[in-house]
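Reviewer 2 asked us to include a model.

Predict the structure of this chain.
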Amino acid sequence: MANVAPPYDTYTNSAENKRVITDYISLLDPSDAPFVEAIGGLDGAAGKMRFTNQGTLVEWIEDTLAPLAGTFALTATANSVTSAVSLTVADGNMVQPGHILSTGTELLWVSANSAGVLTVTRSLGSSTMVTLATNATFAIVGMARLEGDDSDPIGYTDLTTNSNYTQIFHKEIKQTGTAPYQDRYGMSDQMQYESAKSIPEMMRLIERTLQYGKRAAGSTTTPRMMGGYQEFITTNKASGASISVSSAAVGQIEDAVELAYNAGGSGDYMAIVNPAVYQKIKNAYDSSAFVRYAPEQSRFGTLVDTIVTPFGNVSFVIDRWQLSSLIPILKLDNVGMLTLRPWQVEDLAKTGDAEKKQLIGEFTFCLKLEKSHALMTAVS
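Predicted model (structure tokens):
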């Protein structure tokens, strides 16, 4: 052993220096799941939709009221000059005697329906008669029955089902036989620490599945997958192409909610927005058109939690996982997650000099009455 000249210092004599290190592991990585939380957690649909059984295919029953719009199925154009009174419709089950139809500027009154061939009175109430194309559309705008007339049958709407499949999320945690005997800073049990860290890792994947998920039944060789909101919201789509323009953002959001309102939706909605998109919405409302500040005020800016529209209030949830090109506007009563198998950490059979566990859970996404929701697309 060498005899070292004085003075004693920390550079030369380093073997005995103790390591200065925290006994706490810091982690900063996105792990929240705002979308899942906003729709009621991992089992929010259980109460909202009243499922009675369990399985990998989840279905919900839907119905509609009788249709109010239809199409003529004429063999030739019904010229207004001929005042044709026998008109065929594509769906005879939706019309009954007494219905008042509107097509263009003309009103027609139905006096009989024989297997879809209507007997009508043209130009009802001196309305302007039109020439009917073979596939002209019409709307049912009223009912005027004859006094004392016998009852007439009319068709009914058939119940339909929509569905989604459960999807399995899994992660293995493995350590050697020696690993538990190694002292470590920041943890007392490596397996327990890794197991706890795995749940937020999996929650990130559930959030992304809500964005990208494609519905598939699966097989022994292909995975069963749940569809995300893009698989379900197909009717009420509105462009968000000019949402970065403050003057356009307000109108575009209202246009999207109006689509849901016109389809029968009502009440409050929740919009899931990307942080950058939220900034654009905030900037639209954080302006002199909406906000006034006193001259002596030194704190400025506002957060837009909820906006009021003629068609329902819209609250915002900022979600870092949300696609920046889309804004789903959801009726919360009609959307949620469903759990088939909750998160579990299970011991696996020991193989060799190693210990194994697995984190596993199985969930699906449910969105009923898709016309009660809206989707803003091409957001830019």
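Helices lie at 34-38, 44-49, 190-212, 246-262, 275-285. The chain has a mean pLDDT of 89. We have added this to the supplementary material.
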